[in-house]
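Example record

The entry below shows one chain as it appears in the dataset: sequence first, then structure tokens.
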Amino acid sequence: MNDRLREAFDSIHAEEGLKAQTKEFIVHKAKEHRERPQRRAAYPQMAAVIACFMLLLACFGGYRLYFVRTSVISIDINPSIELNINRFGRVISWEGYNDEGLELAKDLNIRFMDYLSAIEEILKTESITAYLDKDEELSISVVGRNEQESREMFANVENSTSGHHNVGCYMGHHEDVNAAHAAGLSVGKYRAFLEVQKINPDITIEDISGMTMRQINDLLNGQISDWECPYGEDGTGSNGNWRGHQHRHGQGQGQGRGCGRN
């Protein structure tokens, strides 16, 4: 009898111990379950912070990458304007290099265009078409950061503009960009100045700056044998016309100031 009672009480204590252990286990798991979502929630938050940080870094690096000029396209007829091109072939900025170029630059809306579309847009502007209608010559000079890039862009521009009358394409040298800007010229007009200077070392930046590209090309092609400044040495006469003597066309006149030397 005593043994059976002892066994019964022991079983009751055992069940209570088991219940206590089970309760403790359940409480522990419940607590663990409540804490686990918090830890899990912290991981996405941390991941989001890291992702935002990486995105900011990528955007900053991408911004610098996108807005770095790698090429210059100079468009000159009498308005002189330059397009700054990024590594993706997009126009990131542009600038005029004479009075007419500055006026043209103000009216353009070519930001982020690819350079071929931007050139086409410029060729359709009123100021450019007016010069082309007068049989003036337009020069497009391509200057890349390296020769391969320059050649690729030059080929694209030449092919794209092949149907336009009196439009010539040229390749410039990257090392001339800073020198051109220091002289107050677009790189295209500076390239033309260097070519003219080879045949006439006396010609100056001031002489070239007021000349149209047709007048410059006439000098290069030998159609103008000499030129004079009928308004004084500084070329600041009342009407500011440039007067040259041409072999084939007699006496020609072009707009702009600046005179050559006999």
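Notes for this example: The radius of gyration is 38 Å. The chain has a mean pLDDT of 75.
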